[in-house]
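Exercise 7. Predict the structure of Antibiotic biosynthesis monooxygenase from Brumimicrobium glaciale.
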Amino acid sequence: MTRLVKLTLKEKHINDFITHFDTVKDKINAFPGCKGMKLLRDENTPGIVFTYSEWESDDDLEKYRTSELFASIWPTVKQWFDQKAEAWSTEIYFDGFSIK
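Solution. The predicted structure, encoded as tokens:
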């Protein structure tokens, strides 16, 4: 299962977010059930970032979302948002990368 989360940051907190992300990215990436994650940044609007993560199952994502790790991250970064976060849980319909 792939999870996409769009975060729109207040301009004055973009660097705060990136700095904080660098302190937690390895912990998130190593969380049980997480197959890997990326932080993507919009090329034209630096305050828009996306987390892209792949999970073994919906249950694994839910365990992360209810974990102490998530509880320690979310309140910090949430205060830097300019808009409410948007999130989608997706499944692969077609994967052209796997056939290249």
